[in-house]
Amino acid sequence: MKGKAMPRKIRIGMIGCGGNAHEHGRRLAQIPEAEIVAICDVSTEALEAFKRTIPGCENIPTYNDYTKMLKEVEMDAIEISTPHTLHYEQIMAGLEHGLHVLCEKPMVCTVKHAKKVVQAARESKKHMMISYQRHFIGPYVYAHNVIKSNQIGAPHFVASWQGQNWMFVTKQWRGDPALSGGGQLNDSGSHMIDAVLWITDLQPVEVFAYVDNRGAKVDAVSAISVKFAGGATGNISIVGDSCGPRGKVYEEILIWCRNGQLIIRENNLFRRDGDAEPYLVPPEGLPKTKDPDRAFIDLILGEAPNEVPPECGLKVIQLTEAAWESAASGKPVRIRKVR
After folding, report:
1. Which of 16, 40, 47, 118 could form a disulfide with 62 if both were Cys (CB 3.0 to 4.6 A apart)?
2. Which residues on neighbouring strands pair with residue 63, listed in sequence order?
């Protein structure tokens, strides 16, 4: 009797091979059901570095033009790690070729493009997922589940901040609006906006913001006040001109609910029930953490739902665009509900 045939591996093409793509590549190399079959980058040096450092990629084909790669290589999916303003056309091209797509944050840089991606993903019947990893990190998943199950009542106020020594990257492509589509709010700050909206499931209806570029061509510091549907309010503060090791992110999210409180601080989760003192939820009490690449492969295999669909990217850019508009005009800006 013959043994059961092994399922074919999910064939992945990488668009963008810089430092962030290396993280995705190393994780994919550890997933038995996945295989990187081609890579693309405008930099030959980046392609060679990727091939040298990612196991199993030594002899795979390389491209400087992703459209050529999509035409010539048989693939099931692509992962995108390129400058932000390139995401839209690359996502759309992947979906048009019948491929599943995992894209780095932010999904896209305009609400107009976000709506088109949402529609294209629905019509393609393929999975489009954003690499917002907090959707898979234990404390954040725990907080999301507590709110969703109404264990401590509905949120009525959120205070969140993120600090990062980020200004050095403004000398690179992130400092060029034509490639970055915006500054820190559109970069690491995108994670914070997504986390607040996803955990609380609150719908922003009005935003007032102050923004400071700190001498750069893009925003570096943002102070945002938000009014949500149902009466909840909150603050989101993004500080790109911060102290600390280069690139390291510090953040905190505090959520006041009707019958308790949740605090996420440096990947620790504190919970308050009623008037009792807050307590640290031990690691064994938190959901298991996994990474976006494992989640993406599980999604394609039909073993997990899409925890970060393109609708999440639409919500993030809606709030981000409103903050930029408010800062420019000095007035509150209304946000329409995502449909």
Report:
1. 47
2. 40
